[in-house]
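Priority: low. Protein: GRF-type domain-containing protein. Input follows.
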Amino acid sequence: MVSWSEGSSSSWDDESVNNQLPRTVPCYEWSGIAHELSFHCMHLEPCVSQVAFQSTDTSRRFLVCAKEKAKEKCCYLEWIDPEWSVAMQFCIGQLWSVHDKENEDRIRENLKLGEENFKIIGEKSKMEEDLRFFKLDFAIMVTDKEEAINQLGSARLSMSDLKEEIEKKKLADHSCINLHQVLRAKAQKERDQMKKEKKKLEYIISDMMKQNHGYKDKVKKLKEICDQL
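Result:
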């Protein structure tokens, strides 16, 4: 049976009790429904045993309503342990101050790390964006280069075809020149031959005119033929 200290107080009739219950810490020696105790909450039901873990009430045992849902829980609060002495409260307050300061420093450090990480993430995002644009520009450059290579290949093929056409034309021109020279030489040869034949005819005509005047008509015809040549 729990022995009650003179400093213990009940909130059954105390209207000044704060409805906000203190934070708690698990304790296997003081937990669960206190069926062995005669105290009951406003629901006239046994209370649940808890240990405080807040400010100068740290480690003090107390009883509260056993209802699990917050809207059903009443404001009953019964302290089992009396308040600590002034010296103990001071020590506990100092410990909580150190704890709170460490938490504040930790939170401040986490905020600082968060800002640095956010900055790093921002820089990383910018780098990724720059890299994405660089890859896009590089892809465009590669495409332009391939297109330029294709155009250069087409130009080389066109130049090769043009050179081939020029060579063919040169050969054709050379052939034409040779053919022209051959035809010209042939024509010159024929003219020379015709001149020789003309001279022979002139000699024959002259001889015939000397030999026989009766061949005059024939001679005229031959002469006309020669003149036509």
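The longest strand covers residues 48-51. Residues 1-18 have pLDDT under 50 and may be disordered.
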